[in-house]
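thought: user wants a sequence for this fold. calling inverse folding tool.
action: design(structure=
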């Protein structure tokens, strides 16, 4: 894979988990990176780790539910590195999936409007904002790559999580629309469709322990690793993917291509154990 020297990326939602892994990988490959998130302590920790490893990074505190914050993160990239060539949208209102803030994503006849609106604003609307403010900067740079982190839930229904499914399905459609609109200007937009990812040792152990039940929902024996998810993003940011746009690329152990003849209770158990691990 070619290096990313000269590329400049804003990674929305990069203070922990997969987002942190993406920021660290892009920086290791030579890109200048803007780290974003709501925790100053976590953000500074990632910034320091990247700089200690010899990379370029700056942290910008960002609430993706606030449009001016999203715009400011784009501006910081240009102010710090002189241009912007990549945006990776990782952030999502996962606290609703796990029932945080007294709100939870649940079946539509029980779902509060506030939870629905928060999920869409913090998982989809900000993706629109990020493209809105990034495209003019990428136009100035002469090229750009937007990578959206989608989910297998965008292609397969999960009845207890309609807001999340809707947000990720909307992300897929927005990915294609942006790709079509700006392809002639050498600005690409793709989505990485994740399935079950071992985002921490605890989650990886829990998923592996599911054994045969996990095999019912995906083709490969184990979950994807953070390294594998991050590798797909680095590829899409870099020049080796220069002819790829408008694509939904699965990194899901075959989940979205599996004929899922499965007891719904098995899915409920997997989701329940994910909640416990988080």
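)
observation: tool returned 278 residues.
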């Amino acid at each position: 894979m070619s290096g990313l020297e000269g590329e400049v990326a804003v990674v929305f939602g990069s203070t922990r988990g997969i987002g942190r892994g993406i920021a660290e990988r892009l920086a290791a490959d030579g890109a200048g990176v803007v780290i974003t998130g709501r925790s100053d302590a976590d953000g500074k920790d990632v910034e320091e780790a990247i700089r200690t490893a010899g990379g370029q990074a700056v942290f910008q505190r960002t609430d993706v539910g606030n449009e001016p914050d999203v715009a400011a993160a784009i501006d910081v990239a240009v102010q710090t590195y002189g241009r912007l060539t990549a945006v990776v949208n990782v952030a999502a209102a996962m606290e609703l999936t796990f029932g945080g803030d007294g709100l939870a994503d649940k079946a539509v006849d029980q779902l509060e409007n506030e939870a629905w609106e928060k999920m869409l604003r913090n998982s989809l609307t900000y993706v629109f904002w990020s493209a809105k403010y990034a495209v003019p900067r990428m136009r100035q740079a002469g090229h750009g790559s937007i990578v959206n982190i989608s989910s297998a839930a965008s292609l397969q229904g999960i009845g207890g999580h309609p807001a999340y499914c809707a947000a990720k399905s909307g992300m897929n459609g927005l990915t294609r629309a942006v790709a079509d609109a700006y392809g002639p200007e050498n600005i690409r937009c793709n989505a990485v469709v994740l399935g079950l990812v071992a985002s921490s040792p605890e989650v990886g152990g829990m998923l592996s322990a599911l054994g045969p039940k996990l095999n019912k929902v995906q083709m490969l024996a184990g979950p994807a690793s953070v390294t594998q998810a991050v590798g797909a993003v680095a590829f899409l940011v870099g020049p080796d993917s220069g002819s790829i746009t408008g694509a939904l690329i699965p990194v899901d152990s075959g989940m979205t291509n599996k004929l899922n003849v499965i007891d719904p209770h098995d899915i409920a158990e997997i989701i329940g154990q994910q909640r416990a691990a988080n």
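thought: summarizing for user.
answer: Here is the designed sequence. The first strand starts at residue 8 and ends at 12.
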